[in-house]
Amino acid sequence: MATTPPFRRSPHHRGIKRQRKVKILATLGPASRDKETIAKLLKAGADAFRVNMSHGDHDTHRETIANIRAVEKDLMRPVAILCDLQGPKLRVGTFAEGKAFIRHGAHFTLDRDPTPGDENRVCLPHPELFGILQKGQRLLIDDGKLRLLVIRPEADSILCTAEVGGFISDRKGVNVPDAIVPVPALTDKDRRDLAFSVEQGADWIGLSFVQRPEDVAEARRLIGGACALMSKIEKPAAVQSIDGIIELSDGIMVARGDLGVELLPEEVPPIQKHIIAKTRAIGKPVVVATQMLESMITSPSPTRAEVSDVANAVYDGADAVMLSAETAAGQWPVEAVTIMDRIAVKVETDSTYRERIHLAQTPPDATTADALSASCATIADTLPIEGIIVFTGSGGSARRVARERPAAPMLVLTPSPKTARRLALLWGAHNVITKDIGSFEEMIAKGKRMALRHGFGAAGTRLVALAGVPFGTPGSTNLLHVVTLTGNELDTPH
């Protein structure tokens, strides 16, 4: 079996080439949205940036996106921008004294009365919840710090008992894990934020509060193909409908934060592996997110458990791992990316890594494109191949090759900046924007030239090229060719 060769930087090398295949998605915020820090994060290992629409206004986000694009141009590397929508937030009302204490085992009522609450009751300003809750179902308050069990649901009130008591204060969030909440995944704010994100040229939209495939279909209609759509799996109902959600999405994010609130802690790891395997089998990017290096918000180094968590996601073959508050508001944003990069590199050089990522089955569909993509991986596993060159317009061929998790890195050549940026979240892809090709000879010459220019081998090394004829026709992948570099390709005209 071939191993991934060490990176060689030639004097002609352009941009940033990673020594790993898994990608890093870093959230930007007050600690990191300036150009200087964005450049440092990219150099440290970030491949894509998340803009959290839950915080900040459009003017701030506009400046952040402009800073990303400016740094992207300076460093000559396509960068994906994911604008993450807030989604609906269920919250309790206010309290007469700002907070109240609910005793363990005591009764507590959620009702429609807007009068400020106390230790016995509080307003629940979400009429859609009255009538859907049943006896024995749970309500989790403040990220699960308080746990209420429904004992008598009525049209205007929900009588509960406190399984876990404690302090409750104004406007704390409410999670309803045992029912499908009849609210759309997109609020009015989300619709405004989505339109803004499309206008600003976002590459991905993160859709929160997904419960069923219909939520994804509505978002896709509004996006209209302008961006790729990543569905965030953070509700138990979404786990139950995961096949339909994956089918309608362009990518999936396993958002363990909210998912961990609504499920038992021990349920989350197998669900994470299950979702990663299913998404990989379809050939779509899957991101593992939230609380990966949480302690690094305030500490310059992570815990051993956090390191193992990141490593586990890499061993599972996730396309990307994400940092949230660690880079958005933490004291050590660059260090968090640096350590995540080091963990990923270490895992991918482990002698058992190749075996582990292939535990998930990714059988190709019965198409020429899928058969050739699978053949690329087989050749890379059999011969000393230093890279797989993929010519693509839409990114479909690159996704098919990445699904196979080949031993060799992938050089993706595309005339579309939009495609190059979207694929920044795809496992193993080094994306380069280049002029389209018109013939087989031009394909081979350009592939060799770009391989040398971007550090994919030297004289005498072999690569695999994958493309479609006629060139420029989406979905026509039908050509696979093994090429050998001579080292003189850079002397040919551009």
Automatic annotation (TrEMBL):
Enzyme class name: transferase
Claim: tRNA-binding is one of the keywords in the record: no
EC number: 2.7.1.40
Domain Pyruvate kinase C-terminal positions: 370-483
Catalytic activity reported: pyruvate + ATP = phosphoenolpyruvate + ADP + H(+)
Domain Pyruvate kinase barrel: 20-337
InterPro entries per the UniProt record, alphabetical: Pyr_Knase, Pyrv/PenolPyrv_kinase-like_dom, Pyrv_kinase-like_dom_sf, Pyrv_Knase-like_insert_dom_sf, Pyrv_Knase_brl, Pyrv_Knase_C, Pyrv_Knase_C_sf, Pyrv_Knase_insert_dom_sf
Keyword set includes Kinase: yes
Keyword terms, alphabetized: ATP-binding, Glycolysis, Kinase, Magnesium, Metal-binding, Nucleotide-binding, Pyruvate, Transferase
An example molecular function term from Gene Ontology annotations: pyruvate kinase activity
Pathway named in the protein's UniProt entry: Carbohydrate degradation; glycolysis; pyruvate from D-glyceraldehyde 3-phosphate: step 5/5
Pfam families: PK (PF00224), PK_C (PF02887)
Signal peptide interval: none
Stated family: Belongs to the pyruvate kinase family.
Protein name in UniProt: Pyruvate kinase
Organism: Novosphingobium lindaniclasticum LE124
Organism placement in taxonomy: Bacteria, Pseudomonadati, Pseudomonadota, Alphaproteobacteria, Sphingomonadales
